From TrEMBL, chain A:
Belongs to the AOR/FOR family. Residues 27-247 form the Aldehyde ferredoxin oxidoreductase N-terminal domain. Keywords: 4Fe-4S, Iron, Iron-sulfur, Metal-binding, Oxidoreductase. This is Aldehyde:ferredoxin oxidoreductase. Its cofactor is tungstopterin; [4Fe-4S] cluster. It comes from Paramaledivibacter caminithermalis (strain DSM 15212 / CIP 107654 / DViRD3) (Clostridium caminithermale). GO terms for molecular function: 4 iron, 4 sulfur cluster binding; electron transfer activity; metal ion binding; oxidoreductase activity, acting on the aldehyde or oxo group of donors, iron-sulfur protein as acceptor. Gene3D superfamilies: Aldehyde Ferredoxin Oxidoreductase Protein, subunit A, domain 2, Aldehyde Ferredoxin Oxidoreductase Protein, subunit A, domain 3, Aldehyde ferredoxin oxidoreductase, N-terminal domain. Pfam families: AFOR_C, AFOR_N.
TrEMBL record, chain B:
Residues 4-33, 41-71, 72-96, 99-128 form the 4Fe-4S ferredoxin-type domain. Keywords: 4Fe-4S, Iron, Iron-sulfur, Metal-binding. One of its GO terms (molecular function) is 4 iron, 4 sulfur cluster binding. This is Fe-S-cluster-containing dehydrogenase component. The keyword Iron applies. It comes from the Bacteria. InterPro entries: 4Fe4S_Fe-S-bd (IPR017896), 4Fe4S_Fe_S_CS (IPR017900), Fe-S_Ferredoxin (IPR050572).
Length: 724, 141
């Protein structure tokens, strides 16, 4: 359909004109509120309290969300919001990874706040258009597009009946529609979901950026927690922003020189060292596929095993040599010399509604290869790329989908479900075409694929209720916590990483802490106290990226040549100082690395209390499925028998000689579950929380997060814990 | 392709710094070696950093603001530049210019003004065969 026909079918519902703003030291000092139930659009001031306590990015998102919802609010209630915000550093062009948007909503999977960190040009353009955050509330009657023209100062809500819903199509359509010319396309960013987001709780948002050289709208994903499902439930087809005139000083920083120095130094470091370090410029995050396999950390067959003899078929060099276009400046925002946003061009699809189309695929990321591939026993790079493509365009989280698919495949292989239940699909490990069919069904809201889109937690309930499955076994092997699927690392042999997944705010996503190497490979954090310190510091440090509009990767996926000689190599001290300099350079403030952590602690604890307010966030919600901690089945135990027998002997004081595997599994389980409880005790203590996981009032006061509404939530829990 | 580029004979350089002054004065109306597109490093044997017009920066630029003109010289379109300075960090000769007074980088366009003033002939304009390093950005020529 031609663009004119699409545009002519638009019906303007409301128009809001605003004075173009200015950015002062990283802030525009106002946010844009849009209610699509009532077609209300207004400007709200950013208060000093917001800047002091919540800084920006997901801090602003969580604060607005807190004020929008009640403890009873469900994800699909109109008052639930989607909040999109950059942060004070978002939009600088000199330092790698500085164009991130943070998206917050109440998740359809977890029913608590989810936050997702996404690239693409939307976040910077939102700020340059005059807004520190975009807050969307309500539900439209018919499909709408929200359009923000950051040069003219106009926001519109338009009914848009004819545009496609799938991400790669609508992003192209709207980029074409709103750009004045081919050169102007880089000034457009589109947020969309996809057809599966109409049905699946694992829906994502696609944030576009126009690739000038490939001449295609590329997509980055706000992936975790089902934000796309909320977006489509609100009947939003897309949000489009246009801003022309990006320059290197639009944040109006207090000290541009500090930012320039940090940025150029890092560009040089990446230039000199990336080829011999992580090869992020060559293959992005997929560089670790074979490394994870080598260290027995690659999830295989629903996290039963950590490696597979066929991993070489999907190792990074296969993608580099056969599929990925090389030597492109693949940053998802200007100035990202780490350039991990890889793409396979001219990939001909073999299945589905776009069969025969030659498409550009964003990826594969490590998580896609591990989740869609190894975890499902699929070692075919073309299936992985095709599933990657369809996940993106249908609006499906590759991580959740990979983990769910691995779960149903194990259930199928163990006879918990059968061909009759799957509608004829033979869901054996390794059946790539069956995996793709699940996706196609999900996009139509049909068949077993529809059920898969509901997530592991719902599937466990359904398999128990309808097919008589053993709930204990499903709880052991269903890799979800708080309703969110575990991301793609095997944490079984690293207690610290079990905590890195389990003791999180939003659920088991590795963006809070990735401690496997520190813990398991390098043995740098041997005691509970060491692990607790790491599970305090790293989640707080990593939270900071989400307050600022930054990407985590340029922190530790490139390291200074002399990093190993520093006092705390795991923290990358030189890069921490860069971040302090960036913040001070932008805002003119004078924080140090300790205040940086404090800024995060406030928001981190606020989010914990928000979870408690929504009925989760206590110790019982931080328990992990046993598959993440140790061997559930005989096969798993015996695949690592030597290691496990040795541990029983040396750590537990139990002689495995002559014992059955079942007996040994039981003893091992008691030991490992006890270790996790001890770790939880130590981490809560370090974080200033009670044994039930509730932040104490003293701690909230000490960190400066003692807002009355926050205290009100924790008080009854603290009283109950004190008396009982 | 054959391109007239600024060429050097470092053994003739006496590190007088005149070339740097001429350059910054031509570009920025200011005699300031930090703002020159040529860099002389004095020492027992002086060294000179000059742009070879290799074109590595053309592909590095995320907005295609750097291109080769019809003379084969690599030039920055400041209007399009977003000031990310990746070209500065990735220049193989470490000679892409940057100064905090400006939000865009700057580079040698082989104008030859510095060569004209060089008292020893250590720098001069010469037509040489260069191997273009840009692979993915179509040439403006």
């Amino acid at each position: 359909m031609d663009i004119k026909t699409l545009r002519d079918a638009h019906k303007l519902l409301t128009e809001f004109k605003y004075e173009l703003g200015t950015v002062e030291r990283g802030y525009t000092n106002r946010t844009l509120y849009i209610n699509i139930s009532d077609n209300i659009i207004k400007s709200k001031p950013v208060t000093q309290l917001m800047k002091d306590k919540f800084i920006g990015g997901k801090g602003f998102g969580l604060w607005y969300l807190w004020n929008a919802v009640t403890p009873e609010t469900k994800w699909n209630d109109p008052e639930n919001e989607i909040v999109i915000a950059g942060g004070p550093i978002c939009g600088i062009t000199q330092y790698p990874g500085a164009g991130k948007s943070l998206v917050c909503t109440i998740s359809p999977l977890t029913h608590i706040p989810i936050d997702s960190n996404v690239g693409g040009y939307f976040g910077p353009y939102l700020k340059f258009s005059g807004w520190d955050a975009l807050e969307i509330q309500g539900k439209a009657e018919k499909d709408v597009i929200i359009y923000i023209d950051g040069n003219k100062g106009i926001v519109t809500i338009e009914e848009a009946p004819l545009e496609a819903i799938d991400g790669h199509v609508i992003s192209e359509e709207l980029t074409e529609m709103y750009a004045d010319s081919e050169e102007d396309k880089k000034n457009i960013s589109v947020i969309s979901a996809g057809t599966a987001s109409d049905y699946a709780n694992i829906g994502i948002l696609n944030f576009s950026f126009y690739d000038l050289r490939r001449q295609v709208a590329r997509l980055k994903q706000a992936g975790r927690g089902g934000i796309g499902r909320v977006f489509r439930d609100k009947k939003i087809k897309a949000i489009v922003i246009k801003f022309k005139g990006t320059k290197g000083n639009l944040n109006n920083p207090a000290n541009q020189s500090l930012i320039n120095k940090a940025g150029i130094k890092l560009h040089k470091q990446i230039h000199d060292l990336d080829d011999v370090q992580c090869r992020m410029r060559k293959i992005g995050t997929a560089n670790i596929i074979e490394i994870m396999d080598e260290y027995d950390l690659l999830p295989v067959h629903n996290y039963q095993y950590g490696s597979h003899p066929d991993t070489h078929k999907i190792e990074s060099n296969v993608f580099i040599e056969k599929y990925i276009t090389q030597n492109m400046p693949d940053g998802c925002w200007y100035g990202c010399s780490l350039s991990c946003a890889k793409a396979a061009d001219n990939f001909e699809l073999k299945t589905g509604p776009y069969k025969g189309h030659k498409v550009t695929i964003d990826g594969p990321e490590y998580e896609n290869a591990a989740g869609l591939g190894a975890n499902c026993g699929i070692f075919d790079p073309e299936i992985i790329l095709e599933a990657n493509f369809y996940c993106d365009t249908y609006g499906v989280d590759t991580i959740s989908f990979g983990t769910i698919c691995a779960f149903v495949m194990e259930c199928y292989e163990r006879g918990i479900i059968n061909k009759e239940i799957t509608g004829g699909l033979e869901l054996n490990f390794g059946n790539g075409f069956a995996q793709l069919e699940l996706l196609h069904q999900m996009s139509r809201g049909e068949g077993f694929g529809y059920l898969v889109g509901l997530g592991v937690r719902r599937l466990k309930e359904i398999f128990v209720r309808d097919y008589g499955a053993d709930p204990n076994f499903l709880n052991d092997i269903g890799m979800e916590q708080k309703g969110l699927e575990v991301s793609e690392y095997l944490p079984k042999e690293s207690l610290a990483q079990q905590g890195g997944y389990g003791l999180t705010n939003k659920g088991p996503q590795h963006d809070e802490a990735w401690l496997i190497f520190m813990d398991m490979v390098n043995n740098q954090i041997p005691t509970f106290e060491d692990k607790a310190e790491a599970l305090h510091y790293f989640p707080m440090f990593r939270t900071w990226f989400g307050l600022m509009g930054l990407c985590k990767l340029p922190w530790n996926d490139t390291t200074p040549a002399n990093n190993a000689e520093t006092d705390e190599p795991a923290k990358i001290p030189e890069h921490v100082q860069n971040y302090v300099d960036l913040f001070n350079g932008i805002t003119g403030m004078n924080i140090d690395k300790h205040e940086l952590i404090r800024q995060s602690e406030r928001v981190y604890n606020f989010q914990r209390v928000f979870n408690i307010r929504m009925g989760k966030g206590l110790r019982k919600h931080d328990a992990m499925p046993y598959r993440s901690m140790g061997p559930v089945t005989v096969e798993e135990y015996e695949s690592r028998q030597e290691r496990y027998d040795k541990q029983l002997r040396e750590l537990v004081g139990y002689d495995p000689e002559g014992k059955t595997t079942e007996e040994k599994i039981k003893v091992m389980r008691t030991y490992r579950e006890d270790q996790y409880e001890k770790l939880t005790d130590a981490v809560y203590k370090r974080r200033g929380w009670t044994p039930n996981g509730v932040p104490t009032i003293e701690h909230l006061k000490e960190i400066g997060m003692d807002l009355p509404e926050v205290i009100e939530v924790v008080k009854p829990h603290l009283q109950q814990e004190a008396c009982c | 392709m054959k391109v007239k580029v600024l060429t050097k004979k470092e053994e003739l350089c006496i590190a007088c710094g005149l070339c740097e002054e001429v350059c910054s004065n031509a570009f920025f109306k200011e005699k300031n070696r930090d703002k020159a597109c040529i860099k002389v490093k004095p020492g027992e044997k002086s060294s000179i950093d000059v742009c070879t017009q290799c074109g590595v920066c053309i592909d590095i630029c995320p907005v295609k603001a750097i291109s080769r003109d019809k003379r084969g010289i690599v030039r920055i379109n400041k209007k399009e530049c977003v000031g990310c300075f990746m070209c500065v960090g990735f220049c193989p000769e470490n000679i892409m210019g940057q100064h905090d007074d400006y939000i865009e980088p700057f580079k040698c366009i082989a104008c030859g003004l510095c060569a004209k003033e060089c008292p020893t002939g250590a720098i001069y304009i010469e037509e040489v065969e260069i191997e273009k390093q840009e692979k993915v950005t179509p040439s403006a020529v």
